[in-house]
Amino acid sequence: MKYVGLQTQIWRNNVLSIILLVLFPLVFYALVFIFFTVIDIAEPDVETDVVNSFLRTIPWITIGVGIWFIIAWFSHTSMIQKATGSKSLERKENKRVYNLVENLCMTAGQKTPKINIINDDSLNAFASGINERTYTISLSRGIINKLDDEELESVIAHELTHIRNRDVRLLIVSIIFVGIFAFVTTTMLHSLRFSGRGNKKNGGAIIVIIILAAIGWLLTTLFRFALSRKREYLADAGAVELTRKPLAMASALEKVSADSRIEAVEREDVAQLFIENPQKKKKKVSFSTMFATHPPIKDRIRILKQM
Predict the structure, then answer these.
(1) Exposed/middle/buried for 206, CB within 10 Å: 0-12, 13-18, 19+?
(2) How far is CA 85 from CA 75, 259, 270, in A?
(3) What DSSP string describes 35-60?
(4) Which of 21, 150, 173, 282 sees the fewest Cβ atoms within 10 Å?
(5) Which strands make up the sheet holding 86-88, listed edge to edge?
(6) What is the pLDDT along the chain (307 residues), one digit of tens a residue?
(7) 262 near 118, Cβ under 8 Å?
(8) Strands 114-118 and 136-140
(9) Nearest Cα to 140, choosing from 156, 119, 168?
(10) Is the dihedral of CA 89, 92, 98, 100 positive or negative?
């Protein structure tokens, strides 16, 4: 895959971030309006003013979503550390890693990010953050110990490319909004509980909420996974642009593919941050590839070996 250029990719990811910030609230509002419309149709004996119910609910949802987003935006670092089991790696603990990161940052002309370590013997890594203050590269203990200098340098260059391209900020935004979908669904269920409707009618309404939540989840998942798959190819190419060592990158990916499982990672939205999916490998099913967080690693290796 041809690397499209740093500035072009930054521009694309900035545009996509803005689209996400606009699109997700609109999806929320649309689902809420559909909810009240379906309830009105399903309960003809109960007089419901769909528009007024929708307008009364919107301010509360907007406030709730806004508070959630602000909290998640400013606390995403601790959230990701907790979800991945990563912690700060001090220079005195591993000067080799710091030297590789700092040399690459000087070559790329970018500020050195924070460096974290995941205490797991498997091989994986990821980048995270929304600005220079929070940009972080996290490496598993296994990937540090089992890769040689050229391979580890390529992995670090891959993660630095995610930071340079603003991939990490785009994915953080998508992770936050996935969480908000769950929040909105819970809010609607609680509002239904205290709405005074009969128990029999509650059952139908709950089914409607579940269906709408599933639609929202499907839209979010497809969009998020498509972004994740494409960005890995671009980051591989960006790593080669920095190191000039495509075979080292290919060799690193081969070793990562053999043992990428990180026990601490249970959340699928966080799993997309990694260089390879850190969750338990599933049996290959052609349909399931549509929902894969990463492109097939053998395809990435094949492209790298052709460079």
Answers:
(1) middle
(2) 15, 17, 12
(3) HHHHHHHH-TTS---HHHHHHHHHHH
(4) 282
(5) 86-88, 114-118, 136-140, 125-128
(6) 444 555 665 566 667 667 766 777 777 788 778 777 877 776 665 556 788 888 888 888 788 778 877 887 788 888 899 989 999 999 999 999 999 999 999 999 999 999 999 999 999 999 999 889 999 999 999 999 999 999 999 999 999 999 988 888 877 877 777 767 666 666 666 665 555 544 555 556 666 666 766 676 676 666 666 566 678 888 898 899 999 999 999 999 999 999 999 988 887 778 888 999 898 765 554 445 555 667 889 989 998 988 7
(7) yes
(8) parallel
(9) 119
(10) negative
Instruction: Tell me how crowded residue 88 is: count the other CB atoms within 10 A of its CB.
Output: 12
Assess contact for 237 and 1: CB atoms under 8 A. yes
- As given in the structure block, the two tokens for residue 89 are 């790696």
Which of 159, 241, 254, 266 is the catalytic position? Answer: 159
- Residue 85 tokens read as 């089991």
Q: Which two tokens stand for residue 105?
A: 């940052």
Catalytic (active site) residue 276:
no
Question: Which tokens hold the place of 204?
Answer: 């139908």
Residue pointed to by tokens 């499209």: 4
